[in-house]
Design goal:
By secondary structure, the chain is mainly α. Helices cover 80% and strands 0% of the residues.
C-alpha cells in the first residue's frame, strides 16, 4: 500500500518549511551584523590603540571581539548561554568608555533577536519532517522504498536469471 499524506499535513509541512527558510535568512543576517558591527568596532579600537596607545583600548578590542565571537557562536550553535555571555561582555565594555556604551544597545538587541531565533529553531527541530519539510521525502520514508526496492530487485533477478538465453539457439 502506498502512503499518501493528507492535505492538512501538507499545509503544515509548507508552513514549517516557510518558517525554517525565514529562520535561516534571519540567522544569516544577524550573524553578518555581528561580524560587521563588532569586527569594525574591534578594528576601530585597534586603530585608536595605535594612535593614542593605552591599555583601555586594548581591553576594548578584546571585549568587542568577545562580544562578536560569542554572539556569532550563540546564533550558529543555538546556544543561549553564549548569547548571555555576549551581553555580559558588552556590559563590561561600557565601563571602559563611550565606544562601548554606543554599541551596547546593538549587542543586547542582537542577543535578544538571536534568543528568539534559537527558540524558533528548537521548535522547528522537534517537528516532523525537519529540516527539509518535504512531502515527497516523508512519503518516501513512510513507504519504506529502500526495502521494497531491494525486494523488487531480487524478484527481477530471480525471474530473469534462469531464462537460459544462450547464443547457440540462434
Amino acid at each position: 500500500m502506498i502512503y499518501r499524506m493528507d492535505p492538512q499535513k501538507e499545509q503544515e509541512f509548507a508552513h514549517h518549511s516557510m518558517r525554517y527558510k525565514r529562520y535561516q535568512q534571519s540567522s544569516s543576517r544577524v550573524g553578518m551584523v555581528y561580524i560587521f558591527l563588532f569586527g569594525l568596532a574591534a578594528v576601530g579600537a585597534v586603530f585608536l590603540d595605535f594612535l593614542f596607545g593605552g591599555e583601555r583600548l586594548f581591553i576594548h578590542t578584546l571585549l568587542f571581539m568577545a562580544t562578536g565571537g560569542l554572539g556569532i557562536a550563540g546564533i550558529y550553535k543555538q546556544n543561549t548561554l553564549m548569547l548571555g555571555l555576549s551581553c555580559a561582555a558588552s556590559l563590561v565594555n561600557c565601563m571602559f568608555g563611550l565606544f562601548g556604551v554606543v554599541l551596547m544597545p546593538a549587542a543586547i538587541g542582537l542577543a535578544v533577536r538571536s534568543f528568539f531565533l534559537n527558540r524558533e529553531y528548537k521548535y522547528l527541530s522537534q517537528q516532523e519532517g525537519f529540516p527539509t519539510f518535504s512531502v515527497l521525502q516523508a512519503e518516501h520514508d513512510a513507504n519504506g522504498s529502500a526495502d521494497k526496492f531491494e525486494e523488487q530487485k531480487k524478484q527481477f533477478q530471480s525471474r530473469y536469471a534462469d531464462t537460459g538465453g544462450k547464443m547457440e539457439e540462434l
